[in-house]
Automatic annotation (TrEMBL):
Its EC number is 2.10.1.1. It comes from Lentzea albida. GO terms for biological process: Mo-molybdopterin cofactor biosynthetic process. Catalyzes the insertion of molybdate into adenylated molybdopterin with the concomitant release of AMP. InterPro entries: MoaB/Mog-like_dom_sf (IPR036425), MoaB/Mog_dom (IPR001453), MoeA-like (IPR038987), MoeA_C_domain_IV_sf (IPR036688), MoeA_linker/N (IPR005110), MoeA_linker/N_sf (IPR036135). One of its GO terms (molecular function) is molybdopterin molybdotransferase activity. SMART domains: MoCF_biosynth (SM00852). It comes from the Bacteria. Pfam families: MoCF_biosynth, MoeA_N. This is Molybdopterin molybdenumtransferase.
Amino acid sequence: MNMPWKLARQTARNAAKPLDAVEVVLPDALGLALAGGVRALVAQPTCDLSAMDGYAVAGAGPWTVVGRVAAGDPVPGVVLGDGKAFGVGTGAPVPRGSTAVVPVEACSPTGGRLTANALPGKHIRRRGEDWSAGDELVPAGSRVSPAVLGLAAAAGHDTLLTHRRPRVAVIVTGDELLHSGLPHPGRVRDAIGPMLPGLLSGAELLGTTHLRDDPSALADALAFDAADVLVTCGATSVGRADHLRHVLAELGAEVLVGGVACRPGHPMLLAVLPDGRCVVGLPGNPFAAYAAVLTLLRPLLDTLGGHTARPPVTAWLGDVGAHRTDTRLVPVTRSGGLVAPVGHDRPGSLWGAALADVLAVVPPGHRGGEVELL
Ligand SMILES: Nc1nc2c(c(=O)[nH]1)N[C@H]1C(S)=C(S)[C@@H](COP(=O)(O)OP(=O)(O)OC[C@H]3O[C@@H](n4cnc5c(N)ncnc54)[C@H](O)[C@@H]3O)O[C@H]1N2
Ligand code: MOO
């Protein structure tokens, strides 16, 4: 029995536990999930700063300029009295007693003195106005984005506690596959191997092995124990050359998902080997393999990597010819809150997926309405 698509995705999400937490230097954390929240080690700003190039002033004008301070200078050792001003650069610490900063273009000098409209507090970035020391800035489970890296640096971090990247090994099977040159009768180009690395963000690809349709070679390849996840391509079906299910049974694997009520990709599978390593079986048809990556592999990798599940993104899709019993994954382009099919979506062809912005999840019986986007 093929498992309903949503249940299959949830099963993949629940099939493993997040990998151990490791401390990594900031650049290496990009794309990983935080194993603990990022807390500010110090307040930002650490002292009152000027937000403009101009003058820090005290009280009402006109003011006499009594000094100058630049970004990078220590806090001036003076207390600015009423009627006094300090020249300031953007980011410079303002002297204590400053009540406002007036931008240089808003000042007019009159007889050696400055006059301007100075609104109290204007253009001063107060100590701690962005955050205080100890504030949690980003919660555990969040993906470390470029902005998270910058934020963590600003808050004083040199390293971040993240979950280890899942290690993935890819096994591409098929006597008929070519890895370069022109396809011709009897030979097809491997279209799955080239697409997989780009679908493994947040994981580490240890390598790709190309095998003929040979059960003992497949069993040997599945013994590779440096990988947390083994991804096989092809051999999921019931043909004479499709050995994956027999080999998994011989290895004592527990099959968590043996097939999914999904078009394309229904022969996809997810199994756990006795030592805890996971096997995701992608069907040989390339678009079916793509559907299986999004249904089983990505949720599994996200869980192993410690990523919190994100709320679904949806859009409105018309009647595109739903399947009676199975979920369809349909390549679509997006415009505003609407999506439209791009076509070219037969299981053996990645043409539609290549033109699409996303895949729409079209449940059985869909006649038009909100659908989830992958
Ligand atoms: N009797 C049945 N036959 C099939 C069924 C079924 O339910 N009963 N399901 C069909 C569906 S749906 C799919 S999908 C495929 C899955 O087949 P396998 O995972 O066993 O893969 P193969 O048989 O090796 O190949 C299928 C097809 O894809 C081509 N292929 C394989 N690998 C690649 C690759 N890396 N790059 C490009 N193309 C590849 C291969 O040449 C075949 O044409 O089973 C159906 N059959
Ligand atoms: O669903 Mo297969 O996965 O049609 O090509």
